[in-house]
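Hi R.,

Here's the chain you asked about this morning:
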Amino acid sequence: MPGHLALVALVSWLATELLGAFMVRSWIAKGGIRASQRKPADPDAMSLPILAGHAGLNLAALLCWVIFVTTGVKPLAWIALGLMAPAIGLGISTVTIWTPYPGRTAADPGDTPAFPAAQADVVPREMLDRALSDERLSQQLVDDLISRSLAPETPVRDSGLSLRPLVPLAHGVLAIATFMLAVLAAIAAS
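And here is the predicted structure, written out as tokens:
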């Protein structure tokens, strides 16, 4: 029978699988399957075959590991590791989908300025001449420029603490720890 290290690897593996299942559930709930099937493909969409390959290889490896832990058949530990290695590679290729990145949002659609060029803080000469010749347009130009300069910048992400990046990070760290524990357990069993 395999030792305690094999059981620790199994517990770590199950925790990794739970985080992976959470990410897949969230991805499906947010329309991930539909986004992956669009033609032409959305560059931000995850590849369904890659995700299925990652999950399928890992579940097959987990099944081999569970049989190894319960029966002690040593080749199954090495088969599990052989299946887990490409699963990790496919998992790494999907990590960019879950990793948030900074950016900026567009202005509120209701805040369309009368002078769109004022958004770039540069007003063309002909637009400025027209605005200065009409008092109403002049006042509107000044109002647009003042409201833009006083408006706070709005980030894409909420400025509060977001736990979203911790999910794939924890999944990846647990996957690496699981792989290391499984290798050590397989070596110890041999």
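One quick note: The chain has two domains: 4-100+164-189, 109-150.

Cheers,
M.
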